[in-house]
Specification:
Radius of gyration: 21 Å
Structural class: alpha+beta
CATH architecture of one domain: 2-Layer Sandwich
Number of helices: 10
Strand order of the largest sheet: 2-3-1-4
Length: 198
């Protein structure tokens, strides 16, 4: 009975981490928490939940260790909200194959329990760009990645990333990169070929 009551009193503390965008980032955060002797229940993109009290010294050590890897421990509520928006978009594009059934603004509002105007204003204020620009930039990066892997054709890439057509994908790609997808793909093949001849 006493052990059960003790377990119920464990306080969970969320740490919010900027630039945490991949599985390797999660491994880095887990490793740094373990080095400091901090126990965690979850480590997800953008956040970690610990079950220990954290001293100011441990916070400073964690901040410094994360900074060396390009990550940043955050405590500003606006920045935390913006990182949550980024994390949701990154997960949606890079780690989820299912198409969302509602538009992005409604999806973000539902996930974060704020209206889209509020989210959009905070994002633009902190990030200096719009949510839509961030979303499109990530979609184009994913297209580049899929073109380099050369496992899917352009029609399959358009379908996978929920473009209405190959033409829509191509137009957006050219607008953001200055290249057509096929030109980008050819440049990658030529570059790889010239490196192979060294």
């Amino acid at each position: 009975m006493f052990n059960r009551l003790l377990k119920l009193k464990i306080i969970k503390l969320k740490l919010y981490i900027k630039n945490m965008v991949c599985l390797r980032c999660k491994m880095v955060v887990k490793s740094e928490l373990e080095k400091l002797g901090l126990h965690f229940t979850t480590v997800e993109l953008g956040e970690a939940e610990i079950t220990d009290k954290i001293s100011n010294d441990q916070v400073d050590k964690l901040k410094n260790a994360l900074k060396l890897t390009g990550l940043e421990l955050m405590d500003d509520s606006k920045k935390i909200l913006v990182e949550k928006i980024k994390t949701i978009i990154i997960e949606l594009i890079h780690f989820n194959d299912e198409q969302i059934k509602i538009n992005l603004s409604d999806y973000l509002s539902e996930k974060l329990n704020h209206n889209y105007t509020y989210l959009s204003n905070h994002f633009s204020e902190v990030n200096g760009s719009t949510i839509e620009q961030f979303y499109l930039a990530n979609k184009i990066e994913k297209v580049k990645e899929l073109l380099v892997y050369d496992e899917l054709n352009l029609t399959e890439i358009a379908w996978k990333l929920h473009y209405s057509s190959v033409a829509h994908l191509s137009n957006q790609f050219k607008k953001m990169t200055g290249l057509t997808p096929s030109h980008f793909k050819n440049l990658r093949h030529k570059r790889r070929g010239s490196l192979g001849s060294l």
